[in-house]
Design goal:
Structural class: mainly alpha
CATH topology: Farnesyl Diphosphate Synthase
Distance between the termini: 21 Å
Radius of gyration: 20 Å
Number of helices: 16
Strand order of the largest sheet: 1-2
Order of helices and strands: HHHHEEHHHHHHHHHHHH
CATH architecture: Orthogonal Bundle
Largest sheet: 2 strands, antiparallel
CATH class: Mainly Alpha
Number of strands: 2
Strand content: under 5%
Helix content: over 70%
Mean pLDDT: 89
Low-confidence stretches: 1-13
Length: 340
């Protein structure tokens, strides 16, 4: 059953969702994070800073490191450990993007040629490994066994999610539960790790640690589900990438899972031909989008995202009101209510 939650129900007037407050509150720390990233990318092997710099400079909102910084500040943190740990989170994220693009054979990301297109698959994989190594160096330098456990476990779970996705790749019989397990591992787990670090370095209570970890998991789930919708519905300018990438790559995302389940024989044959057999022809993307809309799969996926967004907001109720809490609530709104 789809649970639809209106995150804007208490607003006097509609407002475009944004990360403006989160950007404003973390801008000084993000500058410090960027400095750490630039320093840690240096290597006498020139291909490494060139390739790593290409993907880091190609766009992205630094959402995960901003969540690390803001969760620490929400808990009253006054030191500077959160800067290196936010950089660590970004390195893990960037490494997974490099590996993802190789696995998916992607040639564009946010409107820019992917690193594997420019430098080749071998270089992308090896530089991704370099960034993972840099992340672990930062974890060890921090000196917290708790932090090392959280981030190393997240890295392992992300890899498990990649393997799970390979198992379900191009399989139109994929169940919703299987797909949600994949995105929890591939996407939401790093969000959860990013937000759990804050209360850990502040030595806050187990309840607050759990609240922020679960908040990260839920906002990560919502973020990925809306990404699934955007791939079929947003303009290229909004997405920063070509609409229909998931379809062209034969990815089985939640809208497809739900549409396939409700399709008649002709509809199921279409999805099998285009996503399992990868026999796509002119007009198939348009037909796929129409089928997703007509079946209610897009609306249902948005409903799932709203459900996770509502859960994320509930996770923050344990914390008193503050600018950082409001920024995290706005981040939920942004994750769920981006243009679709």
């Amino acid at each position: 059953m789809t649970v639809i939650v209106n995150l804007n129900e208490n607003r006097d007037s509609p407002q475009k969702p944004s990360l403006d407050l989160l950007f404003e509150l973390t801008k000084t720390d993000i500058s410090a994070v960027n400095a750490v990233i630039m320093e840690q990318m240096q290597s006498p092997v020139m291909l490494i800073p060139q390739l790593a710099g290409h993907i880091i400079a190609s766009g992205g909102k630094r959402l995960r490191p901003m969540l690390t910084l803001s969760s620490a500040k929400l808990c009253g943190y006054q030191g500077d450990r959160h800067v290196n740990l936010a950089a660590c989170v970004e390195f893990i994220h960037t490494a997974t993007l490099l590996h993802d693009d190789v696995i998916d054979e992607s040639d564009m990301r946010r409107g820019t040629a992917t690193a594997n297109t420019v430098w080749g698959n071998k270089s992308s994989v090896l530089v991704g490994d370099f960034l993972f190594s840099r992340a672990f160096e930062l974890m060890v330098a921090d000196g917290s066994i708790d932090v090392l456990r959280i981030l190393s476990r997240a890295s392992a779970v992300i890899a498990e999610g990649e393997v799970h996705q390979l198992v379900t790749a191009n399989d139109t019989d994929t169940k919703e539960s299987d797909y949600l397990e994949v995105i929890e591992a591939k996407t939401a787990k790093l969000f959860a790790a990013a937000t759990e670090i804050g209360p850990v370095i502040c030595n806050r209570s187990p309840e607050e640690r759990e609240a922020l970890e679960t908040f990260g998991l839920n906002i990560g789930m919502a973020f990925q589900l809306i990404d699934d919708v955007l791939d079929y519905s947003a303009r290229q300018a909004t997405l920063g990438k070509t609409v229909g990438d998931d379809f062209r790559e034969g990815k089985i995302t939640l809208p497809v899972v739900l549409a396939f389940q409700s399709a008649d024989d002709d509809g199921k044959a279409f999805w099998r031909r285009t996503l399992e057999d990868m026999e796509q022809k002119r007009g198939d993307l348009k037909r796929a989008t129409q089928m997703l809309e007509a079946s209610g799969a897009m609306k249902a996926t948005i409903g799932r995202a709203q459900y996770f967004g509502k859960k994320a907001a509930t996770n923050l109720e344990i914390f008193p009101d503050s600018e950082y809490k409001r920024a995290l609530l706005e981040a939920i709104d942004f994750a769920v209510n981006r243009s679709y």
